[in-house]
C-alpha cells in the first residue's frame, strides 16, 4: 500500500479549506478531482470514503500502515493540524478557542451563506417568479450579515480570529472570499476586509486556491498535481 495523503477535491469553499491547509502545513499530497457539477460525488467508490456524498474527503495512508479516511472539512482540518503540529495549538485553552470558531463557521457561516447563494441563483433562473424567493433571500441575507457582525467584532484589534493564524481563519476565509458580495461587499466590515486581504496575500493560500479548475481544458493548473 502506497503512503501519503490523497485529497478528494472540488474548488468550493469547503474544498479550498483543505488544499490551503495542506499548502500552509507543507504536507505532501495528491489531488483526485470530484466534479460535483457532473455528479461524480455519487460514485460508489467515493461514497465509501464520504458517506454524505460531499467534498472534501481525505485518505491518509500513514507510514505505520494505517489507512485513515475522513470526511467533513472541520474534522479534516483538525486532523491535519494534529498531524502537522501547525495552525492548531497544542495548549488546551487556545485549542478550545480555535475549535469554537471552527464550529461557528461549520454550523453558521457556511450553511447560511450557502443557502443564500442557492436562493439567489434560483431566483435568477428564467421563468421563475423572484417574488417566491423574496422571504428566504431576506432571511438568509439578514443572518449572514449578523454572522459577519460576529466576525467583525472578534477581529477588532486582532490580525486573526484567535490572535495567531489558525485553521479557524482558513475555515472562515474561504466562505468570505467566495460569497462576501452577497452581503454588499465588505465596506461595512472594515476589520473583515483587512483580515481577508491579509490572508489573500499568503503564498500558500494562493497555491491552495489554484490547484484545479473544472472549467479549464484538463482541470489542472501549474500549481496542481494530477492524480497518477
UniProtKB/TrEMBL annotation:
GO molecular function annotations of the record: transferase activity
Transmembrane portions of the chain: none
Alphabetical list of PROSITE patterns matching this protein: GST_CTER, GST_NTER
Short name of any one Pfam family annotated for the protein: GST_C
Keywords: Transferase
Residue ranges of every copy of the GST N-terminal domain listed in the record: 2-88
InterPro entries to which the protein is assigned, alphabetical: Glutathione-S-Trfase_C-like, Glutathione-S-Trfase_C_sf, Glutathione_S-Trfase, Glutathione_S-Trfase_N, GST_C, Thioredoxin-like_sf
Domain GST C-terminal per the UniProt entry, residue ranges: 91-228
Lineage top rank: taxon: Bacteria
Name the record gives this protein: Glutathione S-transferase
Origin species: Mangrovimicrobium sediminis
Amino acid at each position: 500500500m502506497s503512503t501519503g495523503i490523497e485529497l478528494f477535491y472540488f474548488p468550493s469553499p469547503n474544498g479550498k479549506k483543505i488544499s490551503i491547509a495542506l499548502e500552509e502545513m507543507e504536507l505532501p499530497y495528491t489531488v483526485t478531482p470530484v466534479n460535483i457539477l457532473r455528479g461524480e460525488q455519487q460514485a460508489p467508490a467515493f461514497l465509501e470514503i464520504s458517506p454524505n456524498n460531499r467534498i472534501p474527503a481525505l485518505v491518509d495512508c500513514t507510514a505505520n500502515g494505517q489507512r485513515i479516511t475522513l470526511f467533513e472539512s472541520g474534522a479534516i482540518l483538525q486532523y491535519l493540524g494534529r498531524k502537522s503540529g501547525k495552525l492548531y495549538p497544542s495548549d488546551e485553552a487556545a485549542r478550545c478557542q480555535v475549535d469554537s470558531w471552527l464550529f461557528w463557521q461549520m454550523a453558521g457561516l457556511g450553511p447560511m451563506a450557502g443557502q443564500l447563494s442557492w436562493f439567489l441563483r434560483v431566483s435568477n433562473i428564467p421563468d421563475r417568479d423572484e417574488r417566491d424567493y423574496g422571504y428566504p433571500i431576506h432571511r438568509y441575507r439578514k443572518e449572514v450579515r449578523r454572522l459577519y457582525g460576529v466576525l467583525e467584532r472578534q477581529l477588532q484589534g486582532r490580525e486573526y480570529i484567535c490572535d495567531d493564524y489558525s485553521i479557524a481563519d482558513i475555515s472562515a476565509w474561504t466562505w468570505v472570499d467566495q460569497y462576501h458580495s452577497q452581503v454588499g461587499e465588505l465596506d461595512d466590515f472594515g476589520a473583515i476586509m483587512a483580515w481577508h486581504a491579509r490572508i489573500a496575500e499568503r503564498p500558500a493560500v494562493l497555491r491552495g486556491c489554484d490547484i484545479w479548475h473544472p472549467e479549464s481544458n484538463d482541470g489542472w493548473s501549474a500549481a496542481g498535481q494530477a492524480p497518477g
